[in-house]
């Protein structure tokens, strides 16, 4: 991590917010702490951040609504931190566009590891991939721009993807017409810090289908192979 890493922490509990801020700052991370969605919007208007840490239980607009709104407006990575530990809350957070999820109470070292993992995944779209000989993946009118981290439909409309969704699509484009297990997809997208949330691959697949398939319940591009994994069916061309 470098001092250029800037994180916006949205946490209404000032004690917890101060503890997280101090810990991350000792690891050369610039942290701005705000207590609600309105203060978050003001902070985002003033400066750019590399990642948002977002509590779900906030005064006024709740974290899930904020997460959905952030994801619709920008590709800023989001890590949800909350005391709500039920699977339904985790899945809802991921479906709203969060890149990772951590339940309170937690070890600050784990939060730091999750932040680093999410930032690595987000930056991989810009650093490293632009060194490849190909900039685009093309299939059936779709265009995946590796350097710009953009996906364009056959009609020319840009599709907003989270960094995790883009990483998953990138992995599928790299390996078309090949069955990939969940474990393989976790290794290709999350790496060794994936944690206990392996079913998040299913959530990401569902989100990609919602954004790319004309009929997500009967997918054409990303097919489920029962008891094996997923198959990306298009003929992919590198350009």
From TrEMBL:
Phosphoprotein recorded as keyword: yes
Chain residues forming the annotated DNA-binding region: 134-234
UniProt cross-references to SMART domains, sorted A to Z: REC, Trans_reg_C
Keywords, sorted A to Z: Activator, Cytoplasm, DNA-binding, Phosphoprotein, Transcription, Transcription regulation, Two-component regulatory system
An example Gene Ontology CC term for this record: protein-DNA complex
Domain of life of the organism encoding this protein: Bacteria
Domain annotation Response regulatory: ranges: 6-119
Keyword Transcription assigned: yes
InterPro entries reported for this sequence: CheY-like_superfamily, OmpR/PhoB-type_DNA-bd, Sig_transdc_resp-reg_C-effctor, Sig_transdc_resp-reg_receiver, WalR-like, WH-like_DNA-bd_sf
Pfam family, one: Trans_reg_C
Gene Ontology process terms (BP): regulation of DNA-templated transcription
Gene Ontology molecular functions: phosphorelay response regulator activity; transcription cis-regulatory region binding
Chief location category: cytoplasm
Residues with 4-aspartylphosphate modification: 55
Annotated localization: Cytoplasm
Residues in OmpR/PhoB-type domain copies: 134-234
Classification via PANTHER family: DNA-BINDING DUAL TRANSCRIPTIONAL REGULATOR OMPR, REGULATOR OF RPOS
Protein name: Regulatory protein VirG
Organism: Methylosinus sporium
